[in-house]
Amino acid sequence: MTAKSLTGKFIRTMIVEPAVYCRSKDDHRARSRYYQMADEAWGQFTGIHAGSTFSDHFGAGFKDGYSEYLYAGGNGSPPPVPPRRYWRDDWQTPEGHESIEHWYEGYRTGAAIAMSLGRRDVAVVPASTSNVCRALPPPGVVHPEIIPSGSPSDVPVVEPEMRAPLPNEILRPTPDRTSSLFDVLNSVVGRDKDTPST
Question: In 10 A of CB 163, how many CB atoms?
Fold first, then answer.
């Protein structure tokens, strides 16, 4: 390896790539955005349940559960211990434990709402093999299975003409398709398997 190529790799790795994607900055922006979304969801939740009163601890848990689910995923269960703010000596009372239980319940509720809205699917970078890419319809296309119940029947439904095969369906032998990989490759390059290659 030459000094020039080492210098180029150093510049790319230490300067260019961190400028394009800095994990700490992206994490900070993402957490801020998710917490803002959680705050908006909390406002909607309290608006829907206007006749109910919720403790501040339930609200804090709701926002934490909502934003943490968007950030880290998971099954919506709260962490095994509450946040550090509840670890102090003054929370080690029956009232303190009740407040912590409110936080846990709020966390579960916030995470469940974030899960039900499907917001995490668009909060992660999709891999080429993920189902997220296939789950999202192209703009302007509404599939029948994602029309909410009770929606107007005049919503235009566009059926996709065909779908791309899933990775596990490609070249998998089936009763009606018994070609071997060798046969498929030879048909692509235009050779017969009995013809020797030169």
Answer: 7
Render each residue's pLDDT in the chain as its tens digit; 198 residues: 677 788 888 888 888 877 777 788 888 888 999 999 999 999 999 999 988 899 999 999 999 999 999 998 889 899 999 999 999 998 999 999 999 999 999 999 999 999 988 878 877 777 777 664 455 555 554 444 444 444 444 445 444 444 555 555 444 444 444 444 445 444 444 544 454 544
- Would the CA dihedral through 181, 185, 191, 197 be positive or negative? negative
CA distance 115 to 64: 13
| Residue 94 exposed, middle or buried by CB count within 10 Å (0-12, 13-18, 19+) | exposed
Cβ contact 125:72 at 8 Å: no
Q: Domain boundaries in the chain?
A: 29-122
